[in-house]
Amino acid sequence: MPEQVGDLVGALKGRMSDSNKNLMAQALALTGKLARAMGKAIDRAARPLLGPALRNLSDNKASVRACMHACVRVSFVHMCSLV
To answer: Which of 12, 47, 53, 72 has the lowest tally of Cβ within 10 angstroms?
Structure first.
């Protein structure tokens, strides 16, 4: 499955630690949308995003934390059995 998303996962991973908080929030939101579109196939593709995404749980900006919580609800629910 990672070959089907190309370099998108790597680009999203880099944006999740970006100093621009709005860009970080958009990357988290896009990850959630990607997961919704991919369904169960997100398991393998999203593994590299899990660590960087979870680091945003303690971000000072409320909008980033809110995007992170939404992203977790949507995308990483499928990964619970793998973690």
So the answer is: 47
